[in-house]
Amino acid sequence: MIIFDYILLAIIIILGLFGFKKGFIESLGSVLGIVVAALLASRFYPLLADRFGGSNMWNVIAFVIIFGLAVKIVGLLFWVVGKIFRIVTVLPFVSSFDRLLGLLLGLVEGIFVMAVILSFALKYPINEWIIWQMSNSVVAKTLLSIGNIFVPLFPEAVQKIKSFL
């Protein structure tokens, strides 16, 4: 393993620890928020972008706006449910179980986020060092195979973001 592998694993573990802190319900909201937001944004970004001219730049901006709003709305809903659920988690066993499941979902969220980021980094490379690190990284190769599942959810404008770099 190279240093890049350790960096990727550290990021995933940190997101897992955030999930541990948030608990199961809020972590579930984060994971579902990402999926729901990607689906909504990929479906509705043209409607918003067309209001501003429909250029590639506006397609990307519209996608990011819809994605961000959807993540926040889903996150807020699950935050409220999580606060209600906290009443039940005063019991020691339930609290531990809630945090453990939150850790697992946080790790899943970290894997999804890093998979998508690496997929875009490979598709639109910024410099040779990143490409070299990714090509020699065991963890990156695994994450890239996962990321290939998510890339089709993003609009063509986001997939062509290289033209803006």
Describe this structure in words.
Helix content is 81%, strand content 0%. It has 165 residues and is mostly helical. The two termini are 30 Å apart. The longest helix has 32 residues. The C terminus is likely disordered. The protein has one domain. Helix 4 crosses helix 6.
Q: Number of domains in the coordinates?
A: 1
How many whole angstroms does the radius of gyration measure?
Answer: 18 Å
Rough outline: flat
Query: What class, by secondary structure content?
Result: mainly alpha
Q: H/E element string?
A: HHHHHHH
Name the beta content range: under 5%
How far apart the termini lie comes to 30 Å
What's the main sheet like? none
Helical content stands at over 70%
Task: Find the count of extended strands (DSSP E, 2+ residues).
Answer: 0
GO cellular component, one term: membrane
Membrane topology: Multi-pass membrane protein
Main location: membrane
Keywords: Membrane, Transmembrane, Transmembrane helix
